[in-house]
Amino acid sequence: MEDREITKDKWQVMLDAKIIILKQCQVNHNLDSCMKCKKLLNCEIRDNYIERVYESMNKGSGGGFEF
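Structure (tokenized):
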């Protein structure tokens, strides 16, 4: 089987950047999860990450997220 480079779309690239920021924040606060953080509900970093997750799932087409 031949190795092929996986090309990420712009939505995945933006999400990856937010993941790095989120994980660095967790490291800085000695946490392994945002759920353990006292700023959970008022965290701009986490809110930005969640927004990028939704955007990467709907490829920027807008609208809400439905299960």
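The helical segments are 10-28, 44-58. The longest helix spans residues 10-28.
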